[in-house]
Amino acid sequence: MIVTGGQRNDGAMLAEVLAQVQVPRLGPGHPRTRPDAVIADRSYATGVIRSELRRRNIKTVIPDKRDQAAARKRRGIRGGRPPGFDADAYRGRNVIERFFALAKQWRGIATRFDKLAITYRAGVALCAILTWLRV
């Protein structure tokens, strides 16, 4: 988890987030540092994010923006091919959305009362741990 200022855009932090990814293996060995796929909503359908994921050979499960699809259709054959989209994998995004909805019930997280990023991050981690223990 990376905490930044509210004015920072998510695409600028993508490389740092992907550098922290560790997917545990079922057997012995070091954890993988490359996820199978990245699932996100339409707001992350920018060229910078898609090209970074393509460069790292990570499957992108992000629906195309409506205006981008319309522009591609308007250009006809020169518009290019639409990016691939796995609708079944995209349905799993609701798990993350539900966690964010639950985390926003914590007033300090929703309003970001904490002045220090480390304190805010600790609150989010505590919320995640307590949510995980509730199961």
Q: Secondary-structure map with pairings?
A:
Elements: H1 14-19, E1 37-39, H2 47-55, E2 59-61, H3 66-75, H4 87-90, H5 94-103, H6 107-111, H7 117-134
Parallel strand pairs: 1-2
What is the N-to-C order of secondary-structure elements (H for helix, E for strand)? HEHEHHHHH
- The overall pLDDT, averaged over residues, is 83
Q: What's the alpha carbon Rg, rounded to whole Å? A: 18 Å
**By helix and strand content, what is the structural category?**
mainly alpha
Report the span from N to C terminus. 21 Å
Work out the number of β strands. 2
Number of helices, where a helix is a run of at least 4 consecutive DSSP H or I residues: 7
% residues in beta strands: under 5%
Helix content: 40-55%
| Shape label | globular
Largest sheet: 2 strands, parallel
Oligomer: single chain
Major sheet: arrangement of strands:
1-2
Provide the low-confidence segments as ranges.
Answer: none
Compact summary:
The chain contains 7 helices and 2 strands; from the N terminus they run H-E-H-E-H-H-H-H-H.
What does the model show?
- About 45% of the residues lie in helices and about 5% in strands.
- The chain has 7 helices and 2 strands; from the N terminus they run αβαβααααα.
- The protein starts with 13 loop residues before the first helix and ends with a helix.
- Helix 2 links the parallel strand 1 and strand 2.
- Strands 1-2 form a two-stranded parallel ribbon.
- The model has no long low-confidence stretch (mean pLDDT about 85).
- The protein has about 140 residues and is mainly alpha-helical.
- It has helices at about 15-20, 45-55, 65-75, 85-90, 95-105, 105-110, 115-135; strands at about 35-40, 60.
- It has a domain at about 10-85.
